[in-house]
Amino acid sequence: MNAHPVPPPRPAAGATRTATVPVDGELDHESCGELVRAVARHLAARPRVDVVRLDCGGMSLCDSMGLSALLQIRRDVDAAGRRLLLDHRPAHLERLLRLTGTTDYLLADRAD
């Protein structure tokens, strides 16, 4: 497996109310729990941040458990009243979202 531990969220350059969480390596059954926990820690520790950006540019694979993690993160972020953005989505993730019918749900801009 090529998964890397998820570092703590960091503020995005030039944005005071946005934080970026990098998603590197494989997002699968072995690594997805750490990403969900990292976002949960971020939501708890940074209540003033209103946009959570997942930077998927380093994602090399996303299996069904990875998709499940993204769906859980969407629910958690929505419940916290924040926005979720999936940036730099690789082609394999775009295809998975399209095939599973989750594109609209995961990429919806819930700014309210």
Give the low-confidence spans. none
The strand order across the widest sheet is 1-2-3-4
Task: Note the total helix count.
Answer: 4
The end-to-end distance, rounded to whole angstroms, is 38 Å
- Overall mean pLDDT score? 89
Number of strands: 4
Question: Radius of gyration, Cα only, in angstroms?
Answer: 13 Å
Helix content: 40-55%
What is the makeup of the main sheet?
4 strands, mixed
CATH architecture: 2-Layer Sandwich
Domain count: 1
Structure description:
By secondary structure, the protein is α/β, with parallel strands linked by helices. The chain has a single domain (17-107), classed as STAS domain (Transcription Regulator spoIIAA, 2-Layer Sandwich). It has helices at 32-45, 64-79, 91-100, 103-107; strands at 10-11, 18-27, 51-62, 83-87. The protein has a 4-stranded mixed sheet. β1 and β2 form a beta hairpin.
Write the layout of secondary structure elements.
Blueprint: E1 10-11, E2 18-27, H1 32-45, E3 51-62, H2 64-79, E4 83-87, H3 91-100, H4 103-107
Parallel strand pairs: 2-3, 3-4
Antiparallel strand pairs: 1-2
Helix pairs in contact: 1-2
Question: TL;DR of this structure?
Answer:
With 112 residues, the protein is an alpha/beta fold.
List its traits.
alpha/beta, four-stranded mixed beta sheet, 4 helices, 4 strands, 40% helix
